[in-house]
């Protein structure tokens, strides 16, 4: 590959549990009606800006899969290859999966909830074996031989995400393809952090929990990264496309376009 290539990061549209303020994690919940509209508008944005992906990577969860399908259809790119991996699944929220945030806040307190949600190393309590909101018997993971986690921190997400990025996604980027990754809020926060480090931001251990807690992407947010021929980001944070809001730590704040 010569010159530069483009990486597009899209957080899935609003899910039914986003709308209900419930923790989803690996629970396979569908998009809400609003989320379907958000996904279509992202596809229109790709079409109107001429940022047409050549390949898409998604998780195995339907809110990301459906967002990718709707966006590609709106962009008239429904025919391009789509690659799916559990490594792009949302963070496993452990015992919080299925629970309402207000209920969790009332039980554990706002400070502990914020630590679990936003810190780099904080893990919620592990989910119980056989929980109705667990994935112990989920055929998609059993057939793939995936060891389903009981809970995850953002650091854990980055550990399972990085090998997929460095092999599968990087291979498409090195081939000069415009790559669209349709994933989840915590997965994209981990990837944004990784890309920031590649661009020269402080190493993971030098970024405080307060810094990470400020990195937020709303549902339906679309970020563009321009990468060099060795896949280093031209700038440490992506450019936000469209009108949706996004924030980042002070040195890595997303900008609007």
From TrEMBL:
InterPro entries: His_Pase_superF_clade-1 (IPR013078), His_PPase_superfam (IPR029033), PG/BPGM_mutase_AS (IPR001345), Phosphogly_mut1 (IPR005952). Pathway: Carbohydrate degradation; glycolysis; pyruvate from D-glyceraldehyde 3-phosphate: step 3/5. The active site is at 12 (tele-phosphohistidine intermediate), 90 (proton donor/acceptor). One of its GO terms (biological process) is gluconeogenesis. It is an enzyme of class 5 (isomerase). It catalyses: (2R)-2-phosphoglycerate = (2R)-3-phosphoglycerate. One of its GO terms (molecular function) is phosphoglycerate mutase activity. Its EC number is 5.4.2.11. Substrate binds at residues 11-18, 63, 90-93, 117-118, 185-186. Keywords: Gluconeogenesis, Glycolysis, Isomerase. It holds the Pfam family His_Phos_1. NCBIfam families: pgm_1. Belongs to the phosphoglycerate mutase family. BPG-dependent PGAM subfamily. Catalyzes the interconversion of 2-phosphoglycerate and 3-phosphoglycerate. This is 2,3-bisphosphoglycerate-dependent phosphoglycerate mutase. The lineage of its organism: Bacteria, Bacillati, Actinomycetota, Actinomycetes, Frankiales.
């Amino acid at each position: 590959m010569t010159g530069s290539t483009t990486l597009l990061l899209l957080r899935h549209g609003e899910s039914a549990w986003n709308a209900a303020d419930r923790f989803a994690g690996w629970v396979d919940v569908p998009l809400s009606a609003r989320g379907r509209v958000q996904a279509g508008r992202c596809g229109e944005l790709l079409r109107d800006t001429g940022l047409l992906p050549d390949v898409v990577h998604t998780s195995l969860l339907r809110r990301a899969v459906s967002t990718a399908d709707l966006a590609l259809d709106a962009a008239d790119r429904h025919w391009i290859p789509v690659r799916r991996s559990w490594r792009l699944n949302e963070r496993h929220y452990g015992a919080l999966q299925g629970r309402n945030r207000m209920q969790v806040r009332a039980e554990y307190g706002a400070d502990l909830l914020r630590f679990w949600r936003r810190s780099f190393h904080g893990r919620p309590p592990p989910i119980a074996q056989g929980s109705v909101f667990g994935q112990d018997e989920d055929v998609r993971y059993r057939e793939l031989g995936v060891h389903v986690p009981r809970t995850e921190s953002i650091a854990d997400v980055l550990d399972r995400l990085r090998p997929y990025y460095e092999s599968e996604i990087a291979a498409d980027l090195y081939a000069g393809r415009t790559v669209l990754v349709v994933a989840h809020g915590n997965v994209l926060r981990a990837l944004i952090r990784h890309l920031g480090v590649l661009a020269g931001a402080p190493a993971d251990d030098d970024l405080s929990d307060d810094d990470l807690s400020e990195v937020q992407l709303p549902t339906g947010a679309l970020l563009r990264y321009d990468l060099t021929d060795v896949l280093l980001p031209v700038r440490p944070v992506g450019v936000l496309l469209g009108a949706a809001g996004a924030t980042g730590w002070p040195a890595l704040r997303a900008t609007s376009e």
